[in-house]
Amino acid sequence: MRGVVWVVAALVLLAGAGAWWQSGARWRGDLYCFEQPGRVWGLAAVPAGGTPTCPESRTVRAEIRSGNTRLEQFAFPQWQPDAVLDVLRAGGSHGSRNARMMGFSGR
Hints:
Blueprint: H1 2-23, H2 25-28, E1 39-40, E2 44-45, E3 51-53, H3 58-66, E4 73-75, H4 81-90, H5 93-101
Antiparallel strand pairs: 1-2, 3-4
Helix pairs in contact: 4-5
């Protein structure tokens, strides 16, 4: 009987450790800064040719994790600010506000 209790306790401990590890998986990944990978600020899919990237800075990672900062960045083969701006504009007023926060003044 004691052996069964130890096995059950070990399984519960492993399940808890696994859940804890999985809950932090976002912060260990390369695209930690995206709330919804593959989407621009949760509004729409990443424009064609855009590659999502996140800074390697541990300070930025900590600020995003704490909720003090929100950042999403994309690399394009050429200068294409309108590719992401159009997605934000299509998102409505929330998207327009995000565009202004990022320094895009409009066309």
